[in-house]
Structure formats: structure tokens, C-alpha cells
Protein 1
Amino acid sequence: MNKTMTVGLVGARGHTGSELLRLIKNHAGLELAFASSRELAGQSITTAMPGIDMRGKFEDLQPDQVAECAPDICILALPNGLAKDFVDIIDKKSPRTMIVDLSADYRFDPAWHYGLPELTRLSSKSLQRIANPGCYATAMQLAIAPLLDVVTEPVHCMGISGYSGAGTTPSPKNDPEVLRDNILPYAPFGHIHEREVSNQLNTPIRFMPHVASFFRGISMTVCASLSTKISNDELDDRYHRAYDGEPLVKLQSDIPHVRDNVNFHHATVGGWAVADNGQYVVVYSTLDNLLKGAATQAIQNINLACGFHELEGIPHD
Ligand SMILES: NC(=O)c1ccc[n+]([C@@H]2O[C@H](COP(=O)([O-])OP(=O)(O)OC[C@H]3O[C@@H](n4cnc5c(N)ncnc54)[C@H](OP(=O)(O)O)[C@@H]3O)[C@@H](O)[C@H]2O)c1
């Protein structure tokens, strides 16, 4: 498709923001309208982020200035709880601007499209307001979805994330000293991604998040009892039927490893096996939290919403 859409990015300094800048730069149909960061305001993008060869400077834009710019698309890559000021004023002053929010703020709002394309692209209503899924939540849902009709509740998920998942605001979860030779369990009850997945799949899940000393990537282990006996062959069938046509979900019979998937745009699901005479299943998934868990998925959603090829600007094989 021969068109160019302008994109404004709020939260451009962050881990996901910088990945989005890279993807926008390499997308034939997207042109950066602005990159907003308070800390980097005034600096050129290439100087502040030497790996990104892009014209333009970071600006510190308030919500009303963002709405006045009226880009075709506004991506919000801000910490949770900050999107509303931007959304409200865009709704009022520039309602034709499409919004893609990477935070959890609108993932439970039925007026917004929940954009996990492999699972929700057919259910889309309007794509003007898109809530991008969480990174752990993407890893969990891709692993669970092919088994949804046979799992008994709750499904148990244990996730280990690299510390980029905790953003750039200093905390024990991204403190190299705390994480050195260590693994940090946290939020044992009610993690927001536990609620997100339970809500999206309409089945209760239990999620045990951990953060480890590697920078990026997620390892997810999903375990569930089954309401009916299934064989390893049927498991194979279910995963292949679900994802064989999906370039951004790779399947493998072995357990997928974080380091093999880091810096790639796809998720990998694998290592599925049944035990207990076919009534208990374990399956693993991994993805790069900053890519398929965030920035890549946002671009996939934008592509679908704008009528570009779904993988435009996304390296894949
Ligand atoms: N990291 C991940 O793996 C991941 C995966 C999926 C989804 N997400 C979600 O994506 C969002 C961004 O995550 P991230 O990891 O990129 O966070 P981050 O690295 O901490 O970056 C946050 C960005 O927001 C800006 N910011 C912070 N406070 C602000 C405020 N009060 N007003 C305006 N700008 C502010 C920061 O830039 P300045 O301080 O320079 O303004 C920075 O650019 C979060 O909601 C997160 O939950 C993250």
C-alpha cells in the first residue's frame, strides 16, 4: 500500500520507546511526527541513541501539545497510570488520531481493541483505540490458547523476565546488585497480567512472576490439568493448527530458551508434553519482552489498523 502515516511517540526514551523508534525508522509507511521525552528533550535522536540513525530531536510535549500535533497515530509508551491525560485530550481535540497504548491502562476497557493479533485479529471492532497486551500476558496466552477448551481451572503459569521488563525507573526489579546471582519472585497474587489473561481467555489463571539478571526475554512455563485425556500427537496437532500460518509464532518440540529468541520479533512455543495418563500438560513459551512482548506487537497492530501488510517493517523469515 502506497501511503505514509505520521506517528507520534510519547515515552520515546524508554526501553519499549527506543525499540519503537527503530521499527518506525525501518517502516516504509510510517513517518515520525515527534518523539517525546522529558529527560532527552532538545537532544537529537542519533546523539542520544547512537544505534538509531533517525533525523529529529526529542521534545518534551504535554498532552495538549500532543493533541495539537494531531498525528495519524499516537503511541503511548508510558508507565502504567499515565495514559488517561493523553487519551482524554486526543479524544477531544484530535479524535481521528489512532492511539496505541502499551500500558495496562485500557486493556480492560471493552471500548478498546485488545491487540494480540494471532488471537484477536478477527474479533476487531474499531481499531482506532488499541490496547497493546502485556509481555508476560502475550507469552501466557500464546501457550494456553490452543488448549483452552480442555484445561481445567486454574491454569498455572510461572514466568521469568529479564529486568528490562521493569522499565527504566530504578527499582529492586531492575537493580543489577539485587539481581546479581539471583532471581526475584514478586507479586504472587493478582499481578496485572494474571488478571489480563484471565479476562481475555475467560478462564482463571494463576501467575507467578519472577525477574532475573538477564536484560531481555521471558521464559514462561504453563501447567494445567485437563478435563479430558489427550495424547502427545493431539497436542502437536493443536499447536500446529493454531500457529502454522503465523510467522511471528514459531513452534519447536524442544523447550524454547530465552537466549535463542532474544532480539527476534517472534515468540516461540514448544516443549509441550502430557503426563498423568494424558490428563496433565506442560508447555513453554519464550519471547523478547521488548519486541513481540511490546514494540513489534504494536507495529503489527498498527499495520492491521492502517491496512499495511501485517508484517510491514517487521524483520521475519
Ligand atoms: N518493558 C517491557 O518489557 C514492557 C513490555 C510490554 C509493555 N510494557 C509497558 O510499556 C510501557 C513502557 O514501558 P518501558 O519499559 O518502555 O518503560 P520505561 O523504560 O520506564 O520508559 C518509560 C517512558 O515514559 C516516560 N515517562 C516516565 N514518566 C513519565 C511522566 N510522568 N510523564 C511523561 N513521560 C514519562 C519516560 O521518559 P522521560 O522520563 O524522559 O519523559 C520513558 O520514555 C509501560 O506501561 C509498560 O508496562 C513494557
Protein 2
Amino acid sequence: MKVGVIGGGPAGLTAAYELAKGGAEVQLFEASDAVGGMCRSFQLWGQTVDLGPHRFFSSDARVNRLWLEIAEFDYRMVDRFTRIYYGGKFFQYPLQPTNALANLGVIEALRCVASYGRQRILPEPAGESFESWVVRRFGRRLYEIFFRTYSEKLWGISCQDLDADFAAQRIKKLSMAEVVKNAMGLTGKKHQTLVDQFAYPLGGTGMIYERMADYIDGLGQVHLNAPVKHVTHKNQKVTGVELMSGKTVKLDHVISTMPLTLLSKGLEGVPQRVVEATKHLKFRNTILVYLRVPETDLFDDQWIYVHSPDLLVGRVTNFRNWIPELYGQSGDTILSLEYWANDEDQLWKETDQQLIERGKQEMRSTGLLGAAEIIDGHVVRVPRCYPVYARNYKSHLRVVTDYLSQFQGLDPIGRYGAFKYNNQDHSILMGRLAADNLLTARENDLWAINTDYDSYQEAATITSAGLVSAETA
Ligand SMILES: Cc1cc2nc3c(=O)[nH]c(=O)nc-3n(C[C@H](O)[C@H](O)[C@H](O)COP(=O)(O)OP(=O)(O)OC[C@H]3O[C@@H](n4cnc5c(N)ncnc54)[C@H](O)[C@@H]3O)c2cc1C
């Protein structure tokens, strides 16, 4: 069987890696000049940086085994230190009682408790929005401080228009009791968002995917600068792909991680109702502004969430606080500032110089830089980063997925490939299971892999000594 994989991010590379290992004939087509997708690492001002913060964490033994098979022992454990910047104050995240109390003040803290208590006694009616989901669980005041502003910056829509699915997938099962228990230092199995240590590759997040690509290239083929225009088919049976260059490649099966909307619109004979449905499936873009500061000791966080509504920046990463291998002998600190925008937004159209100036001003206003200079700037634009879970998106998505499910030999997977708000571990799992279906004729339901799944058989996490099962950890 000849298998083609569209996209060299974590999902596509994992699928191709597993297929190559299993003896299948595989070719991977990547649109850009490098592998890793949103998880790629690159060299900047003599250091290794990622596209914003990339923490790898999973409790799924299948995902972790694969990650370790590739990383071997070329990783370090990082002690997470992250904070939230809001109203001119820095809140430790996960929350710590004394820090939270000092920042909120006694009166505001009591208001938060009262507002939480009110939801316990007299909950607001359940709705389908992110706002209603969070308010019912944490109370309105905590929602306003810790959830609303950041989420609205990220998604570009009101939290009332954001589907509760986002919360259900990402903060599912996180309860006030768990937040408080964690803040009191009580141990137990931690919710993913509260995990305080994670594994990080010596060569940056992208190292894992570069190694996968090297392995595949040894057995099959990895084509860079090879954007796929569309998947070809005959009577809904896949026959291959056509590249933007006009070249066609015959294939028996295609695993696609290109945007779901573009994949479906590109199929010959696509019905108008499917085209209409894709118009409701929107992606949010990211702009990363990198700043170079000739100092080594600016602040301790690996990243900071910027909730303050007066700043457009949403998150700041300090690459100097991950592992020393990233910055080597350099005497500089590299920061990356994340901004989110839609195609039509003025922000997306700003020049690099305007964005760098904006980044400099906003960083200065936080006080995080003190008197330090900023001596250089660099901008990376990442289109279609976040699948927007606008309310009712599922009904439109279903029209598209029902249509694609009729095709024989086509598996859409990945973050924008399946329109799922994946982290890298979810994309790795999708790639793994897609390959597994082909190699072993299993029928793992790839659409069913959620972005907060816990139905795996074996739980194990990565430690400095390798994989440790959940019972031992
Ligand atoms: C700022 C930021 C921070 C993040 N932080 C974390 C984190 O802390 N932890 C974590 O686990 N995850 C994080 N993520 C998410 C992580 O990057 C993604 O989950 C992961 O990269 C998804 O992998 P993927 O293979 O599904 O998609 P992608 O990484 O998007 O890969 C898709 C690939 O397909 C290629 N492609 C697209 N169209 C075509 C075409 N027509 N032809 C050929 N190739 C094509 C693209 O160029 C790309 O290389 C973060 C993402 C961002 C943007």
C-alpha cells in the first residue's frame, strides 16, 4: 500500500514514522521548508527557540513511550514556574493562597468566595457557552479575573459566543476543590493544567519531529516545500494527491493534516452544503514577536499569561528559563510575545516594525524589563493556529466530517486537520492510531479522539528516569 501523508507536524510525522517503522511505503508532503509544524524549533540570535511556549505533557503511556523512543535521554525535566499578569499584579499559576490573597486584597477575595458560594447555592441556569460553564463552576468574579479577558483575547469573540466545548475539553474536571487542594500543597493525581514538571527536549520542542523526519527519510520520503493542492479521488475512493506545483502522485491512502476546510473544499464534486458549512469553521491566527534583551536574569517564569485587557499581548515566553541547552553561551534573553488576530484584523496586517514597536511598548508597561534595553526584534506569523469553537460549530463540523467519512482511503487528523484544539500529545496519538489502523486493520475511531481524553488503558508519565507508571508515580 502506498500511503501519502499531508503535513509534517506532530500528527503527520507520527503517522509517517509509525508507518515507515511498520514497513509501509510512505511519502510525506510538507508545505513549508521545515518539519515540526507549530512545534518546530529554529535558531534565532544564536539560540534555539520555539513558536511560543511548548510544554509536552501526557499521562498516556502510548504517547509517552513513543516520545521517549525518539528523545532517548536527550531531554530535561523543567520545574514549571508560570504566572498570570492582571491589573498590574502577578498571580502565581497554579494559584497559591498567600500570593492570591495579597494580590486580590481581602475584600476582593471575600467577594470571590461569596460569588462562588452563590453558584453553589443558586446556580445560574446551565447554558452552552464557555461563560456559563465557567461561572457555574467557579463563580462570576473568578471568571471575570481569571478566565474572561484572556479567553476573549485568544479567541477574538465574546465568551458568551464561545462554545462550552472549549472548557469541557481543556478544563474538564478541574474543580474549585482541586484548585484549592493544589494550592494547599495536598498531593494526588493532578489535573493537566496544574502539572508542575514537564519533559523538554535538549534541541527544543522541534527536536522530536526532526528526528522522526530523519527516520522516515531513511526509509521513505519527506518532501519539503511541497504544498498539496488537493486530494484526488474516483467515486470517493482516494487515488492520490496533486501538489501546488501541478505534479500528481498516485497513492492508495492519504492521511491529511492540512486544514480540514481546505481539504474538503478541494475535493472534486464537493457538495455546496459542505462548502457552506466550512464557512462557519474559522481559525484564529497567531503573531509571535520575538525580542532580544542583552540580560540574563529578567524574570523567572517560563511563560506568563497576560490577562490585562489594556494590553493586546496574550502570553510572554522567556526561553532563558527552560533549559540551559537552549541559550548556550549567549548573554541575551529571548522573549516571544503572542498576539492573536483574524485575517481581516488590522493587527494581522501590521508591518513587522509596527509589531515590534508594539511589543516593546507593551513589555515595558508590565515592568518586567526594568531598565533593560531591547536590541532586536523578529516576527513570525502563524496562520490558522486555533480552530475557533464558536457556539454551534459542532453542527457545521458534522456536515463536513459526515461527508469526509464517505471517502475510502482518507483520514483527516491533527489540530487543523481535524478541527480539534489539540496539544502535541493529542496530535501524536491521532497519528499513531491512524497508522495503527492501516498496519493492523484495526478500526480506531480517529474522530473520537478528544482533546481531553482519559480512556486509555495505561497511565504513565515521563520523569528524569524515564517512564513511570501512574501507580508508582
Ligand atoms: C503558540 C502555541 C503554543 C502552543 N503550546 C503548546 C504546549 O505548550 N504544549 C503542547 O503540547 N502543544 C502546544 N501547542 C499546540 C501544538 O503546537 C499543536 O498541537 C501541534 O503542533 C499540532 O500538530 P499537528 O501536526 O496536528 O498540526 P501542525 O503542527 O499545524 O502541522 C501541520 C503541518 O501541515 C502543513 N501543511 C498545511 N497545509 C498543507 C498542505 N496543503 N500541504 C502540505 N503541508 C501542509 C503545515 O505546514 C504544518 O507543518 C501550541 C501551539 C501554539 C501555536
